[in-house]
Amino acid sequence: MITYDYTLERDLGNNKKQTFVPDKIPRELPNLVYIEGPNSSGKSTLLNIIALSMYGNKSKKINDILKKKMNSLLDSEYQDLAFIVKIENKDMSLKIVSRKEKGSKEINVCESVNGEGEKPLSPEKFEDKYNLIYDIPNNPTERLRELTREIKEEQLRYGAKVANLRTHIHGILKEIEEGRDPKRLESLKDTLRLLEKGKNELEKNRDKIQSTQEALATYTYCKYFLYYCDQCRHSDKQIENLKERSKDIVKVGQKNTSDYKRLERDIENFIKEIDEHFRTITTLLNNVLPETEKSHLIIWNRIHERLYDTIKDYELPDKFENETVHFSKILNEIKMSEEKDESLKEAKFISELLDFLNESLNEYKNSRVMLPGAEISLTDFVKALELKKKQNQEVIGRANNILLTIKLLERLDFLRKEVEKKLPKLKKLEDTKADYSDNNLEVEEINKLIDKYKTNLVENENKLDFYVKESLTKNIDITSMSDEEIRAKIYGFEINKDLSSYLNYKEKELLNKIDQFDVELRETNVEIVNKTLYIENYRKDIERLEAKEPHKYQEYVDLLNEIYLKAGLIHQKLHNKYDKDINKLMSGDPIKDPIDERYLFEISKYLAKRVGTFRHIDKQYKASNVDLISRRIITIEGQIIRFDDMGTGQSQSAYLKSLLNTQDDKRKIIALFDEIATLDSYSLDPIYNRFKELYDEGRLLVGILVQKADSVSVIPKI
Description:
Elements: E1 2-13, E2 16-20, E3 28-29, E4 32-37, H1 43-53, H2 64-75, E5 79-88, E6 94-100, E7 108-113, E8 119-120, H3 123-129, E9 130-135, H4 140-143, H5 147-178, H6 182-252, H7 258-288, H8 294-305, H9 310-313, H10 320-338, H11 342-360, E10 370-371, E11 376-377, H12 378-391, H13 393-432, H14 439-473, H15 483-494, H16 507-547, H17 557-587, H18 597-611, E12 613-616, E13 619-627, E14 632-635, E15 640-642, H19 648-660, E16 668-673, H20 681-696, E17 700-708, E18 713-716
InterPro entries: P-loop_NTPase (IPR027417)
């Protein structure tokens, strides 16, 4: 029996609300039922709420469209859902109760067995005991490929079990080999403590990497969004200026000599380089200077804002030289002071030592060679140095930033002097107002420059689109923020110590670093999983040794060694070879590299087992194998039925049956099928028959099929 009730309160705006309750479909339903009804009769809402009540929004198997509908019921700001769902099996020995209170997002699922009190079920425990199947059978033949996702998950699950078995056998062999003396037991405990410590450090490191990556990504997207906004504005301004210049040439003739134009372009190039250095230096100064320099930074930013007026005014912004000299002096004083710090000396030594080991001992650094007198392997020594280097990253990063800023200021001062040399000559050439007759040639040259700026504008706008999309992945609508708000956000990241070593990175380097963090996160998570497995096995070994019972597997040493080797081969295949093969099948793309033929054959047999008996045209067939590459089903009689030749209803029937044919999976099933309108009675009969078989076996808790019709009808199928 299925018993349910819900209220869905929806905000319509203008202080108006509407409440929905189940008023067309009965609130008590049999375990196996067929429901039909018109649109807005509550059919899909019922299925969504039942699936949601069984943690459907957390299931990896349910497709994203259905999960989106469930999450909209759960998370929408404009509506509030409350429900209670109770499911009991046919002999009333099992009851599942799921509740969600009004105003809360928490779903509480409990289980009662043989009349005992209700016990809570977490999503993980629920998935271990129950198989929730919720689907809309659209495009069914193409979705047969989705069954390969279950194969991939099973391969990885069994691969992990084989790995655990292998580790377990290895521990037993060690026990048999080394005995159970107190020293051995203490050694195991010491190793366990080290593993637990290592796991904790890895988890802290993972959290630090994730936090730094998110901050660095947000900083990068904001910084370069603003940068490309400036570039677009600059290109627009240059295009406008060039168009005005072209008009002037047509009206009054050539204004400047070719020498003037050449010199003007030279100065423009210098100004562009000065602008680039200004941006980098400003970022670094914000990070390394004390608060007392804030007034100088304000002057510095004003100088930057007036930089592109230099050619028009025939002079560089006021106080340019003074502020450059001032910052150089301050930074050199900071550099000299911090170079005396012992922590910086230590950080540089460790960094240089690690570089030497990586370059000179590459062949041995991953070996288990022990360092004499230190009782530590070379591998662990290198890892310890790498960890210390990461801890010292802030110290080294700050020192590098200070040194880089000093060098950039030197280059900036050189560029300033070069521009100051050229500006008087440019002014003199302007004053001569030399006339040329080649006006058309000058206009043509200006038009080329306009085209160049237009090309730059398109490229910069594409970059802007990229950073807008990327910022949205961090839940930041950057287009709704003012330049001042973005600069404030950037400044907040620039004073973040975790980002100090990356402030001198260029755009491509920052994007590469964000990608590198992704790789580090994946590798760290793999290490955490491996350490967790080792910790679990060491705990079991310690418990076994402390019991001090005679080892019962002594006489099976040879057999255990044989199993240990075979388990290694099986694990290698499941986690490497077969994982690559199943990924090729899952992609749906043309397969270029070969797949193991025997593996492919077994996959096709498994899929055929899932499809089982199906109807095609006017006959029943039993699948012998399902070939995803050739897109065809071969029956036990040898007949070939291609996916594209199957009717929609019949292919839907075959697909739905494949979801139910889980003989190797003994979990109890909760199956919900929506929008089955294209299935006639011949196509539905196999589904009902399979439902009844599962129900009689005690494996089916719920089976609901829903279809559109002109009126509501609820038909029990048991």
